[in-house]
Amino acid sequence: MFDRLEIRVLPPGPRFAAQLRFWVNGEDVVEEAVGEGGRGPYAAVVLPAGQPSPLRATGEARRLELGEPDCTGGCCGFLTMVVQRLGEIVQWSDWEVPWAAHTLKPYPPPDLHFDASQYDAEVARAEADRWWQVYQ
Question: CA 67, CA 40: separation in Å to the nearest integer?
Fold first, then answer.
């Protein structure tokens, strides 16, 4: 059974630009890993206009930042993982969790495995949906 990814863009607030949240199997990965108040990466960085998103999976493994705790990643570290395409599977693995989050959950998230076609479609959908740029 494959995991299922949904990418959501949160509207900008008084302190932060629009940011991404990653829902896997109905759970917010950022909140689960770093706790309430954690932030996802800025939408403009992960969904750059006119360029492919770094979320696009290739055969080359790349470390990506998915979030940070409320105190900022510069303080406690970032939530990161390695994304890689393995044939018809996209894998998220080798998680690094901010040190403060270890008090919430003693272990990093498990490896996640997505059907590559569903994953690619979700990343393409997020890249094409630019509603949040109105607020930039």
Answer: 4
